[in-house]
Amino acid sequence: MGSEAGSRSSLTKPFDPEEFRKHAHRMVDFIADYHRDIENFPVQSQVEPGYLQKLLPENAPDEPESLDDILADVQSKIVPGVTHWQSPNFYGYYPSNGSTAGFLGEMLSGGFNIIGFSWITSPAATELEIIVMDWLGKLLKLPNEFLSSGKGGGVIQGTASEAVLVVMLAARKRAVEKLTKEQGISEFEALAKLVAYTSDQAHSCVNKASQIAGISIENLRLIPTDVSTNYAMSSKVLANTLANDVKAGLVPFFLCGVIGSTSSAAVDPLSELGDLAQEYGMWFHVDGAYAGNACICPEFRPYLNGVEKADSFDMNPHKWLLTNFDCSTLWVKNPSLLVDALSTNPVFLRNKQSDNNLVVDYKDWQIPLGRRFRSLKLWMVLRMYGSNGLRSYITNHCNLAKHFEELLRTDSRFEVVAPRVFSLVCFRLKSPANDADNSCSLSAKLVDALNSDGNILITNTVLGGRYTIRFTVGASRTELRHVDAAWKVIQQLASKLLKECSS
Amino acid sequence: MGSEAGSRSSLTKPFDPEEFRKHAHRMVDFIADYHRDIENFPVQSQVEPGYLQKLLPENAPDEPESLDDILADVQSKIVPGVTHWQSPNFYGYYPSNGSTAGFLGEMLSGGFNIIGFSWITSPAATELEIIVMDWLGKLLKLPNEFLSSGKGGGVIQGTASEAVLVVMLAARKRAVEKLTKEQGISEFEALAKLVAYTSDQAHSCVNKASQIAGISIENLRLIPTDVSTNYAMSSKVLANTLANDVKAGLVPFFLCGVIGSTSSAAVDPLSELGDLAQEYGMWFHVDGAYAGNACICPEFRPYLNGVEKADSFDMNPHKWLLTNFDCSTLWVKNPSLLVDALSTNPVFLRNKQSDNNLVVDYKDWQIPLGRRFRSLKLWMVLRMYGSNGLRSYITNHCNLAKHFEELLRTDSRFEVVAPRVFSLVCFRLKSPANDADNSCSLSAKLVDALNSDGNILITNTVLGGRYTIRFTVGASRTELRHVDAAWKVIQQLASKLLKECSS
């Protein structure tokens, strides 16, 4: 029997090393073949809601099934329902860029399968995280106050949503304690006064964090932006809002600035925001989920100026630094405020090292208790590509986006609707002269047509009240030829739509 | 050059299929060898705090390094800092039981590397999750109201901490809306009245969820337990507490019952708790993080009776159902209450299928936005072991624990301090007659000695005010011979300690 036939045999033990070896090699080949063939699939899955229920049994099997049978089902039933985020033709949202190194790091983490909530549960997991967060912080030229050598520290969260939530909870705790002490009011009266600030371009996770933290929806200020600042927050508008709120007896406690907004990669004026945060005693968080990554390149680092005035900064290497999802890197200047807000010390987790404050226990820096050994993948990415390799990777994407923007400008049927700073291009298909009321909603139709066609995937947003197409270069394997091919299919489908619209 | 020498070459592209194939095969062998050799390492890592900083450079490298160099570092610098949760000699906490199938599912998820926040981002991810949560729900004989066919539904969370948080947030939202409407008070006045209930044996995540949800620490009732109920919550004590709170103008809104408490695997009287929850209009959540898994076996299912009165139920297949961490399975009867509390609908995520309510978007059932394709690993575990295989797996652990308990009872120096129900045994090393004040704290010394010795790992808790040793059989590869060897080393070290103590 060959090795393939061999894997028809079912598993006899839960984690036998030799059965593991054989089956895992088989899975490596399956995944490698998937990546080899990935451009054969429509990027956006074309299935209809409910498709899978028709294909799978109603109950789990009683007896073991073979890996070959399962992989056959993956190929015929699962893959058609997958939207191929790793395709070089994926230009939607902000990408999830995987890599060989990131994948290997995840494998190794899965191989150890430890739960690193406290230092004692696997010292290497905590200590490697401290070290790689310092490494990455240095690549970003974060001030020393954010690093472990400067009383700050980094922690890997799952997502930017969790990062903004934990810092908001730390800010809430600090603000409530101050108010109850100074004004002799209850914690709930204090909570009612707290106001959080961000721009209307900030990610919805700020809104979600506020909901969870119990901040009234009326006390979340989404500072309006417009084209005059390229959709960045105006510190003048923010200053006015703050002054009015304080006059009304409210208490500003949290400000989230953005570098690289989700809709158009807008960059808030961090330094001015930092000054206002300091003036009003607010926690200042900087969300750089996507564009923060670019700041490892000297040409982009200036966009991060002002971060030295922040209390916390977060970005997602899983978006644009080749680290497989999930990996969101959060640095804080004062980790003890996180611990104050999030620690629990049940008897069943007590140990000498924690009791004596000799170690970091990351359980107190996050929402969940358990945590994977995620630092391994970030460590492997940093080592296997090197910081120069990672810089080239980012720069190359930005150059490809610039190239795409130039192509757009050669075709007068399109308009670029926000300045391109990083690797995101926002554009529209202009309505023809005889369609002044935009009844054809051409851009929306173009997005639908492109995603149904399957050659590329793009997504949409609204900017300045108008439907906008987003084209992000950021998949790991996107090359010049892919961008050129994407432009060709965009032009073709646009021509078809314009013809239908004018007929 | 052989394949090993070949992997000295560094990566040239971020995700080249053939480079991936070569390097991933190398990693499979590394991990298989680790598992083959796992019993050679001390189970509990023996490093000192700060060990790793001395071994790694201060900065990320500029240029790429080879996989072989990295794996050499893993072996010499990381592995000594790993506490080997996958060792068959791991009896601490509740285990994190990995398996070949769970690992393969994680690999495949990492291979696709999709972000499944909305149905449209990979329909298979959402639909497979719905299906396997129904499969597992049926194995547990959950009432139909928890399944997708009965208007309920399941969702995979990362951890039980997240599960209890999201249901508490749903309960908070419902309770606050009711109070503001009925009593004409503000949302903060309503929040101040809310009281949550659980036992003093519940996991610390209930405490943490309350903190996050803004429930005052004075309004979290940890109902005291004692040996008279084997550390289960007394519904009588709960009923008295509820009556007093209501008399004081407070509003009970959330009750968490436990099947398999962390300290001693105590089981709360779910049915009686459910009746009280209904009487007071509370959300009733059942946390079965560890022992819930056992309820796929007919002999253990009676412990789950009463779950039909619950609003939500959660357990962790990553603890005891061979699914690699993280995988916490939460079922709710009314998912729309989760969505009410957690949904955001930013313009940049809008799509036809979501707008038309044709699909489930799991982003609104959880804290983070992004989510991995975790259903793959649960699906593969259910298929590759089959439900009969999984039942045998659980039963075998419980039999091994029973065997260990019997060994303990043969040695009068030890006492079993709580009845064993599942695979956890709680015991103490009795103090000798001349040490009535327990000055030797023999049990604590025994745990320290065992973990320093390295042959096995065990952990501790406090029960009824007394230090207690916990011995959980639950690692995937633990066999009878391991338990017998563990008992031997426990006896040996106990003899040594008793000798020292009496001398």
Explain how this protein is built.
Two copies of one chain form a homodimer. With 503 residues, chain A is α/β, with parallel strands linked by helices. Among the domains of chain A are: 77 residues, dopa decarboxylase, N-terminal domain (Up-down Bundle), CATH 1.20.1340; 108 residues, Aspartate Aminotransferase, domain 1 (Alpha-Beta Complex), CATH 3.90.1150.10. In chain A, 43% of the residues lie in helices and 12% in strands. The first copy, chain A, contains 16 helices and eleven strands. In chain A, strand 8 and strand 9 form a beta hairpin. The first copy, chain A, is globular. The N terminus of chain A is likely disordered. Chains A and B meet through helix 2, helix 3, helix 4, helix 5 and helix 6 of A and helix 2, helix 3, helix 4, helix 5 and helix 6 of B.
